[in-house]
Amino acid sequence: MAEPGGGRPVTVSDVQQLVRRKDEIEAQIKACYELLEGQKGVGMHEPLVDAEGFPRADIDVYQVRTARHNIICLQNDHKALMKQVEEALHKLHAREKEKHAKDEAEAVAEAMRQSPAQPFAQVNAVSPGSPASLSGLQVDDEIVEFGSVNANNFQNLQNIAMVVQHSEGRPLSVTVIRGGRRVHVGLTPKRWAGKGLLG
Fold it and tell me: Could you tell me which residues come within 8 angstroms of residue 189 by beta carbon, excluding any fewer than 6 positions away?
């Protein structure tokens, strides 16, 4: 039997087709064994001649020999088919693994493109009770992303002030580097007892 699909990649339906063929062969082998069973329980190795060397009269010798021959051929086909099923499954799993690894690498690359890990500002004060304090922002946090502002488009603190004003009452995604680790903080600029919308 030819390799499923020839040059194209192995698909799940190719494997299912091989498994169906395997089931068919197993059913044929079973039928041949049942035929032998019907011939006075003659198996694969019992003699087909009597004590004097003549063909046994109590069984259909031709039918037994044909069934035995078919079983041997079918078992060989079955063995070859099982090898094909195994190879097809290996290819299928290898392709899935490869695809998963590729997707993961692309996701990492995309994340690196989207969020340059270059800090552009440092938190030097956080007022107690302020929105910044409530969000978990800490002194010495290095800001990598502040809403849409990052190292690529940051020019001065006015950029951050603009984002804060436009985001009053709405959560902002802020990414900082704290102790060498990236930390995401959800910060909602709003009016409070102190100065500004952040503190």
Answer: 131, 164, 165, 167, 168, 169, 170, 172, 197, 198
Spatial separation of the C-alpha atoms in residues 194 and 192, rounded to whole Å: 6
Confidence of residue 5 (pLDDT cuts 50, 70, 90): very low
Phi-psi region of 187 (alpha: psi -120 to 50; beta: other; left: phi over 0): beta
Angstrom distance (rounded) from CA 70 to CA 24:
14
Which residues make Cβ contacts (< 8 Å) with residue 50, sequence separation at least 6? 56, 57
Name the phi and psi angles at 9, rounded to 5.
-65, 150
pLDDT of residue 127: 83
| DSSP state letters, 118-146 | ---EE-----TTSHHHHHT--TTPEEEEE
Residue bearing the bigger pLDDT, 157 or 102:
102
142: β partners: 122, 177
CB 149 within 8 A of CB 172: no
Write out pLDDT tens, residues 68-91: 999 999 999 999 999 999 999 998
